[in-house]
Amino acid sequence: MTDAAARLAALAEEVLGAPLPLRIRAWDRSETGPPGAPVLILRRRRALRRMLWKPGELGLARAWVAGDLEVEGDLYEALDQLAGLLWERDEPAAPRRTRLAAALKAARDPKVRAAVRELVTLAGPGLPPAPPREEAGSTRGPLHTLRRDKQAISHHYDVGNDFYELVLGPSMVYSCAYWERPDTTLEEAQRAKLDLVCRKLALEPGQRLLDVGCGWGSMVLHAAREYGVRAVGITLSEEQASYARKRIADAGLTDEIEIRVQDYREIDDGPYDAISSIGMAEHVGSVRYAEYTGILHRLLAPGGRLLNHQIARRPEPDEEAYHVDEFIDRYVFPDGELAPVGRTVTQLEEAGFEVRDVEAIREHYALTLRRWVANLERSWPEAVRLTSPGRARVWRLYMAASALSFERNRIGVNQILAVRTPESGASGLPLRTRDWRG
Q: Is the pLDDT of residue 342 over 60?
């Protein structure tokens, strides 16, 4: 077979109803497409079989993770162009759906049907191979039980602390940084974020702080060292807990900080003066969110503050039709769910909180993700050695695609400050907005 690239480009245009904005290089080394554009490389025919048998982002993701599909050139530009083909970008409020999947599953046009048949022939005989081993295994039973949540967290976080050090840098903070300027270092921006959280919580010496989803201990370390609090951090990841405890011991703060491998539903030693939840609530799930907010309200002392830092999606016209991103669910955050910020505010209020401030910082996350991608790419051989080629490709794809999603306003991230206001009505906040201390 010769000139597979030209045939693929023509067939793709027939199916999608639009020309491919990327160059294509096929397994036979043929190449076609706009000069200077990023190159989509199909290294093996099975990449095409994966995409035909599972049309949409999951088939593409499996081909990418397996190394059957690669991009040469600007990855961000390539992903942005692919997003324009795969998803209905002209209908931002419509339910997320795949143009490719719709074309392949519901095509009635004889020309499209003929093109699909030729694509199947071009892909070669046989079923697609099994999904890459980096894909999370199928889970059964009710969502967000203690056991299932622990398994989901382990899939994402227990992939090696050395790997995360490469990606996150010395701060070891795996959430959106806070940038005063784009040329600030990642470490400075992460320190600024931690300090912003501490100031919003109005932390003072001697207070008790609970950090829900403490990761590698950066928040509790900063709060204890800079604000003199006594802190408890909880995580479901054994690897994170071991790493955090060592950092705390090295800092001489073992009397001030306790790290527990514990689910938020198992905490019974309140009240706390302040609670931080930074990048954790995305794992809670809609079926448990009311329980989550109720538990945090119960654990907080009257007058205490909660800082909930959480990624948000845009609302759908039909919320019942919302479905999670297949690539993220299978390869990155199993069982993770995003909710619109308005729903999160409502559920906090229904739990008894008084919501006092919402700060949207989505552009900050785009900057953060681009720095993480740069860290990963700079240390690529070591990242592959520490995990696997497929795992490194998962992280590169999801972080680069997420950066674009924040930049294009497809998702956002918000810091919500809420208070367990006592019966007297005295919130403890100042009259001036964002002065933080009363």
A: yes
